[in-house]
Batch of 2 targets.
Target 1
Amino acid sequence: MRVAAGGPGVKRIFLLTVGLLILSLALPAGTSGRTPLFYLAAQSCLSGAAFILAAFLAVKRQKGIRHITADLSANVTLCAAAGAVVQALYAGLPLVPLVFFLGFPYTVFARRFGVFWVPASILSIAAAGRYLLTEEPGLIYWTAVFFLYSAVLGARMARDARRIEHLRSLVARINSDAKEMMERIREDDFTESSERIRGEEAARAIAIDEDDFLQKLLRWGCRAFNARTGILLVPDQPGFFRMRAAVHRGVEILEGLVPSDKGFIHITREREGILCVSDASSARKSLSFYPGDTRVGSFLVKIVKDPKWGKEAFDEMVPGKIRCVLYFDSEKVNSMSLDDATARRLDEFGNLVLRAMDTAGHLQKLTKEMSSRDAISRYARGLTQSLDSEFIAEMALDAISDAVPKCDGAAILLFKDGGLTVEVSKGELEEKLQSVKILRDEPSQMGLLLRRFSELESGEGIGDAQSAEIVINSRQAKRSPFFHKGEKLEDIISFAAIPCYMGQGFTTLKAAVTVVSGDRDAFGKDELEELRTITGMMAPALDNAIQHKIVDEQSRTDSLTGLLNRRTLQIILEGKINNVIRGYFKSMAVIMVDGDHFKNVNDTFGHPVGDEVLVEIARRLKTGVRKNDAVARYGGEEFAVVLDNAGEKEAGEIAEKMRHSIRSRPFVTSAGRIQVTASFGFTIFSGTERISKKELFEQADQALYHAKSRGRDRVVSFRDTGTSNSEFETVAAQTGAASQEDKTW
């Protein structure tokens, strides 16, 4: 047995006194079964001296008199004194050994099972002395029962101790992993190797679910306190707590907020953080998380506050002071009591829960910082790989999803033609912002952002581009639309819109990044800083992509109609021919389109009006084809269309649809309404014949010639011209000459 602290002399005197007291239990106590008075007086003096010395040792160890019941020295003295009482009174009161059974669970030996032999040995010494003196074996039987009782109780305590140790080791391992990851991050500074850290260690750490861990703790707590229900409450809104985790058997739990200014939490605060109600019949109404018919016999409540606040009185107005509230109950009345052992187990359990929450919080913060920095790093590297604005915006959405954990939806809106148009979106906004263009006068939050930015660009606004940001972190009493009238985003509470701009002496808006969340306070200082970093990196990349797109389109498209030019069509046609030859498609079609009597339009109304007609013809042709088909201006008023995976029937139907689109409605021009028609000729390439791009265009051009010669405003297939492939070469020159003549019609 080890006794710590205190001076060496006091320790020796204490050990000598307790030793004499224990030794006296084995000395003769008189043949009549009665202990002499001088013998009792000596034992009483030894017991008193031992208690005084134990108190002195406890004070030396800075435990104080209040905690003397948990002191090892005091417990040894108590057991020795109890043995003397048993020795003296057993003859007249055979049930006196029950003092060992009743007192053992409240001693330090019940929590330190390794030294339970101390009270067992004291009782054995008293039993052996009595048997040797009086040959009375009754006390030996009591001793055997005590050994069995302490073994069962000790096994149960050892099992609970192993569970606590397992949970502690789990918390310690998480702490160790978090520290190791942090050190390696500092060393690597997010180089390529840090990406591996995130992929392996961080992902494994994130897999430790905090909710599941707290559930395991509560299940252990229910067993430790013999409870039916265990609930962990954490602060939420001012004056309210919310349920963080719950374990319940055979009862229903209602989710919701629990007030702290009334009910059991308020009473617990007044009782210095701990409350036990043995008969809860009158307090049942304060348990708002139970349905009305649920029976509660008794309950136990413990408030756990942050240790950094010390031992001053509980004050909920101080943010973060109360970390959580532990609640346990039973359906039986008087099944729970608040004694010293229960209070100590509650303190220990509360500290364990607090450590678990702190560790999980640190781990979440660590993984969040890792994810944010890694997402931004990957986004920065990815920006150099593309000049496509859509790809850049999609990468930005991926980075936002990693950097902002509470993001339920995000969108990138490009600024063009005086408004914001959705480029890409995901989550809650993916289907609810289709084909939406937001203008400056839109009565919404995004319209407000445009108005603020317009004032900054014109010099009328006060502040910088950051002042144009819009951040909402709570549900508004009178809510205005985030994007446009009639939007359906009722579940969204938090909203943030960050402008993406270029600033070089003046500020130019390029895009806006918007994120939404169904949680309150989803976008704090850290999240907004991450969003600003991403938008700041996106602005020059978008500007480069837009400029590149303008130059690329100018080189690939016709400046008047916006369709592909003839050179680009030749390149596209070659690729589509290869797709048919390789078997990706069964066939393809080339359609030639020419406006009927278009020279009359130019001669009658002038070339500017003729250009307006050409632009409208191009638009109607473009809307009449499929997504992967190509439409080009071939020259003058002549257009060419290349259809993917189209046979004779499909090509004829699409050409007829485009012809009807041109004929069905007059063209609205600056000179008034003009009726225009067009002729169509097409040919099919199936890959079985050897034919060049030039020959395909000539076949379609010959079919167009036949359409004009048959009265115009019609669709003709090369197959219907009556010209075979063998005859085609002999008539191609005539067709070309006739086509040139037709250009003057």
Note: The mean pLDDT is 76.
Target 2
Amino acid sequence: MAAPSRKRQSEAASKTEPRAGTAAWDLAELRNIYRNAPVGFYSIDRDFRFVRANEFLAKLNGRSVADHIGRTVREVVPALADSLEPLYRQVLKSGAALLDVKMQWVSPTSPGEVSEKVSSYYAMEAEDGTIIGVSAAVWDVTQQERTERALQEREERYRFLFEKVNDGLFVFRISPEGVPGKFLEANEFACKMLGYSREELLEMSPVDLRQKNLPDANFFLRQALKNGQAVWETEAQSKSGAAVLVEISATAFELQGQPAILSAVRDIGARKRAEAELRKSIDLNEQILSSAQEGIVVTDRELRIVAWNPFTEALSGIKKQDALGRNPFELFPFLQGLGVDVIARRALAGKYLAGLDFPFHIPTTRKSGWVSVSTGPLQNSAGQIIGTLSTLTDITERRRMEVALRESDEFNRQVIENMGEGIAVCDADARTLLWNPFMEEVTGLKAADVLGKSQFDLFPFIKDQSLHTYFQRALQGETCSSPEYHYSVPQTQRSGWGVTHFSPLRNAKREIVGVLANVRETTESRQGEEELRRLSARLLQLQDDERRRIARDLHDSFAQRVLAVNLNLAFLEQSVGPLDERAKRALGETREIMGSFAKEIRSLSYVLHPPVLDELGLPSAIEEFAAGFSERSGIHVDVETAAPGERPPRDAEVALFRIVQEALANVQRHSGSPTAKIRLMRDDDHMVLEIADRGRWKPRRPSKEPKTEAERLGVGILGMRERMRQLGGVLEIDSSARGTTVRAVLPLKKEVDRVTADPDR
């Protein structure tokens, strides 16, 4: 029914109270609403003082209406003032209303009671539009909030149970005729069981999941509508097309006034398979005795045989019909001598004995060997002991293998003891389990000195040189080898060099239980390498000395003689009379040849050993050689050298100069770069030489092509590496698309001094 209009209300009021004016009636009506409405109404001025307040608000604040008027909000409700005053200021400043502001309201009369309130705030304007205060309405929504929270919690509990149950759950509407609609809900288990996503299932109905060859299942849905519930077994079709054997429990309920079904679908394939297996096991019980690959003998309490399977027949040579009803000790008297009768009596007393090995010999079949017997009590369904059950396992082959294994163990022991390398076996805590004679010889420690003790405690060098990290890697299943290390044994003062190969030690279950370490002693080979290095260094030094001598002879002898010949030719040319053209040409060509020969001698002498290297030092020698190389090759070479300082040892200068020669020769032969740059830098501890170009070192001609003079005299990069290593330095070559850089770093003090002090090193 529509509410009456204000005009009709006024007319009705005029008829009922003809002397009351319309305005007075409306005012009275508004006052009545203001006073009695279940909403808190109040107004405040710009100083936040209450101008009006109704009874509902007074009840909320625990004060009378009169106690509100003229007081500030902070005086009436101090606990709420800090929250309310910013809202008032916002409304007073902007003039815009603030609607549906949620707030927790603490009752002044019950400080522990908190209620939920929703408030709206409006600006109050004077006739001239000036904002003179704020009016507010307050609704108590505590019960509503509690109801919503309760509904939310209930929904969350329902959702949790719906999703976590170990059955597929579906919800769908259904017509009165039993025709299902699309799924409204499907839980996570249902999605996993059928292979669909939730979104895919919500676009389907139960009809889409039925196997095509099965009868209509709407009968069961109609039964659920009629009786409230129905349970049946069927096959559902998964997304992959596979059939899933399921049990469906359908429960009818009303959803928003319409019939619906909650369907619980359980995968019973595993259960059905188990039931089938159980049926098979029952059928197979009859076959166990006949097909068992071990002997089975059952006796009653008088030790009369009641079961004797074919394996026992084959083992003993006695048929089942000849054994049933007889005592085993009558058949095989030797069993009593082995104590089997005692075992049988203990089984009748409830004891179980397993894995007892006995030798046997059957005179009738002449069979002999070993058998493992396990005997225990045989009980009925009431738990009463009614006899014994024994299993017999022929372990003859196993015993033969054990003998062979013992022989093999003896063989392995001899191999380990006579092996030409150390073998140490440790458990996971590095405690020594095996220590072969080679280890005794190398360390001077006997096996009795180390067995059961931690190798980390016995040999501190293991941790000092980080060898324990390889031990840990082996415990993780990795097979690894250590680099060469220096060992020392504090207990015996033995020391040397070695390499260890670490492997995981596994038990019969392939579990890692320790580490197998194979130790190879490399002291002799290292000493040989050191001797070879000392010989190499000596050869390099002798080579440099010989080059220096040859260069000096070329300069002091051959060059002077060539100069004398040239002077004599010049004298002859000036002294003799006029010569014919042929003679003049021959004399000129001879002088040119001698000049070129002199130049070649000077170049060869300089390549072998430039005098400036001894006289002025490495920087000057590099600059002079680079200038000559640029002139001969056409490759522009920039040279940048450090400020002069104390000259390094002679061997260091020679090595660095040879690297310059070799690097520039490779630039000319392989790089193809039009330029090169040499940088010589030094600090207090190191001298660094860099030769860089803009090409890559790749041979440009077949290896059979004759080598140039510089190539024949070059010592090669490998030789330079060895020379730098002998001096304690390093040689690095970095070649890329941007170019090639040769970098030599040489220590200037301790290492070079030590090496050069020992020329035989």
Note: The chain has six domains: 23-140, 165-272, 289-400, 419-521, 524-609, 614-761.
